Amino acid sequence: MEPDDSMELESRIAMTEPFSTDSDSEALGPPSGYVCPDCSDSLAEIFVGSYRWLLRRGQEMESALWFAVRSLQEKAKLSRYLAKQTGPGLIADRYSTIADEAEHALSVLDERLSAATRQSEDRGG
């Protein structure tokens, strides 16, 4: 029995570690120019007339973004705490600046995630 190229590819995709940078979605096939009507995720053309839904990449990206949100929240909270603990002065000012920067990054990220969620919902995803 000859090995099935499509099954080998599916197995390779399934075995890829989450958040892996080793996997190249371009290696799956050229972008098809189509998106999934349900989730708006990209489709790659694996073989002529055969498409691979790249939802896994979208799920990994969403997980990474939520990890970033939690990390920024913790960074801001810890920096505010340390600023209070050190009392007035340059060190407290530095911790306050770090907290401000983390909170700004958090607001930008939250705005982008909210906009992406609204777009997905508007498309019926």
UniProtKB/TrEMBL annotation:
Superkingdom, taxonomy of origin: Bacteria
Chain residue ranges for the region called Disordered: 1-32
Protein name in UniProt: Uncharacterized protein
